[in-house]
Amino acid sequence: xxxxDPDEFARTMARVPTxxxxxxxxxxxxxxxxxxxxxxxxLSLDPPLVLVCLARTASCHAAFAAADRxxxxxxxxxQADVAGAFARSGHDKxxxxxxxxxxxxxxxxxxxxxxxxxxxxxxxxxxDHSILVGRVESVATGVAEPxxxxxxxxxxxxANPALASSTP
Length: 168
Known about the structure:
Distance between the termini: 23 Å
Mean pLDDT: 91
Number of helices: 4
Strand order of the largest sheet: 3-2-6-9-10-5-4
Strand content: 35-45%
């Protein structure tokens, strides 16, 4: 069987709706770090574990690989500007952001759909990404509708007409 074409794989995975998160941490010098991720899911109920994937090429990779804890902010549908800001590199992602100290003192979004404060359980090899596994220590749940990422767009649940009109 021939190998899967990477571009075709990326196009296929773009059709899979995922939550949009901003993951944050603070290093030992007090510097805040964060990135936007759409590869986030629960892993285990007992113990409570989640995973999120981070590109090895990300400027914040070393900070998260060394972090003892991190906070997953599951973004609300109206937080696309935050998602965009934390997806770009080369600027201060926290400047002008609505982030404030939340669970475990980590930068969080008060209006997020959910927040999960994690102790780093492991950092695993995931090809061109690292898989950050977190043991969830505390959670906060909001009431806002979640944002999803599908067809390379930030959108709302059920709000993507391109998906509704397509056939399998």
